[in-house]
Amino acid sequence: MRRALLSVALVLVGCGGCDDPAPTTVVSAGGIDALEFLPPESRMAILRIEEAARRASNQESWMGFAHTCLANELRERAESAYLEAAGLPGDRQFDAQYLAGVAATRFAPGRAEKHIAAALAMRGRYVPAHLRHADVLLALGRQNEAKATLERTLQMEVTAHALLGLGRIALDRGEDDEARTLLEDAWRRHPGRPEIAAALAQALRRAGREDMAQELAESIPRTHHWTFFEDPVHEAALRDGEHFTGRAIGR
Amino acid sequence: MLAALVVASLLAGCDGNGPTPIFREAGPEWGITFSSGVTPNGNYPIPEIVGSGVAVFDANGDGLADIYLIDAGSGRDRGAPNRFYRGRPGGGFEDATEESGLGDTGYGTGVAVGDMDNDGDLDVYVTNWGIDSLYRNDGGTFALVADSGISDDRWSTAAAFVDIDLDGHLDLYVARHADPDVFASGEPAVDLVDYNGPGVYAHEDDSLYRNRGDGTFEDITEPAGLAGHPAASFGILVEDIDDDGWPDVFVANDGVRNHLWMNQRDGTFREEGVQRGVAFNGSGSSEASMGAAMGDIDGDGRRDLFLTHLGGETNTVYRGGSRGGWTDVTGRSGAGQPSIARTGWGAELFDIECDGDVDLVVANGSTWRLATAYPGPSPKPWADYAEPNELFLNDGTGKFALASDRAPGFREEAESSRGLAAADLDADGDLDLIVTNIGGVARIYENVSERAGHWLGLRLMDPDLKREAYGATVTVVAGARRWVDVVGPSSSFLTSVDAPLHFGLGEASSVDAVEVVWPGAIRETFDLNGVDRVHVLTRGEGSR
Question: What is the mean pLDDT of residues B13-40?
Fold first, then answer.
């Protein structure tokens, strides 16, 4: 019953104007909450922490539970918990609202965009939040807004992440010279990042520098998973979240 | 107000009694009795959860589609026989496995069809966990080729016939995943509690076999430049990516970067997936790619790429660019987010209602036990892995919207679906579906959508080779609209379809021209008289 009530509450606080369904805290048919992928003992431990947060019902305990969910890739559950925390008194409203967006980015970009925009209204100078916002806008196909956001962040701080994002947008628009300039700048600032190498290899191929593109492409690991370049709030959340055994089966 | 409601209902495809169905599951009168013979051996070998595919082709030249269903079994070299269903003149199918000779008893995974000996009928290659099987077709009956020159017994997944050197003989690309019996650490793969992902196994190189022209093949993997690129490979697509008249090969890889093998026109290939934008998704991550399909999603005349992926990842849509490169546009495609909760396998892009744009169907099924089972007919243990399939309709701009509620059986009866093929199984001008399911029956879904426009079927024949010109690129022109497709049977997941190209034309009731780029970059233009039927275009009979 508590879960049902929470779900209703989240529908109400959910995502006006975006296509994403409201989050739930239950593992539902069709949901992507990864609790089901954890070994039983880890699953029980997480449910115990959730129950403790529910009993304490303060911002700090919900943040702790949310961090644990985030650290264990329980993103839908983490989003819900961060939103609980954001709705309670305390001094971590920004972190909670922002991390709700971080948690939702991969599976519900519409909701993530709302959460991050709300966080930015609280603390507009946090550059990683702008960069995440741009990423989510791109995922939603709102390229012009993403481009404007990235350009604004460059006024605040020049980052390889922003240059990469603008380079990708330029690639998509066929602005090949611009793309190459941006991506080479990103590569100089953060050499070795496979994401930049992959985008730069595309730009080089289009510029007719096929051998350089090939060399760069071959330097990239066969398996690579994107991680955000630098985000102290997110990194602290991952550090603070209690880690449990991973999925019983490997990838 | 009432009028507004009626309009809204029509737009939503509703007739007041729920959504108007687009697909309807075919009944027993269609004659497909196949049920997967996979038997879990208790040790979770990866071929079990990968499942098996299907081929649709005209085996005996009678103009009717036939269906060949691949079956697995209980372990390496312990397969259940594949089944062959011949199209009946009055509609439906009949089991002709015994007389066809196609009851291969290897532990089957995938299938490729193609006329390897240029005698005018389609031969069959079956990939197995164990030695693959090559069957030569002689007028509708098949004989196992004992001395094909292919004796590799590593597990193979998808396969495709492709004339890589333009010598007129179809060569063979065979995708390989991993050794299911051995972990990457070298330890035997035993004592598992569920199916493992590809990361724990040692990946294999794919294989390329050159057709010597005498019915035998030689392994040219190493001289062609494919060796030393082990990957957990599944779906294969063959297209001329750079418009040079030579076929290139895209391979969807499970958990590692995808491969795009660009034909160097000298018998070798160069891997260019990264620099052409399809090795990783848009954020630079490798994904667990399973099935693959190409089609012009946004109607810009360029081929776009759709890949299915593991749950927790989106399926990914790549928009084709002007110079043989792609950009990840999943976020604005509408097909990404609904896929995160599912593991996709087979997929096809085709125009379901003939309204002029390509739609999307995806076969789903988990690779790990789900905590909450979806309702469906699968027996244990497969019920624990069952997921609903999905159907998306294109709004005409390249954006997809879920319409799975208009294909009731396809979605609601969750199973562990894998192979998916789209073909006109009832010769009525629209494309139907056949889906394979691990531990379950193969299901046909008849296209019952309201026809929203005209259609055109095309076969492209090369008279010198007595076979269809695999690799030919076709552009249909009607007014300002252009539709592009490529001749070739390899698509989706473990699946092969040799059937006429199918174009939904929307309101266009005639076509101005059909432009063909034959293999070797020979261009011809054809005038067509009439739509809503299949035309045969013969190389040399168009205008240059």
Answer: 84
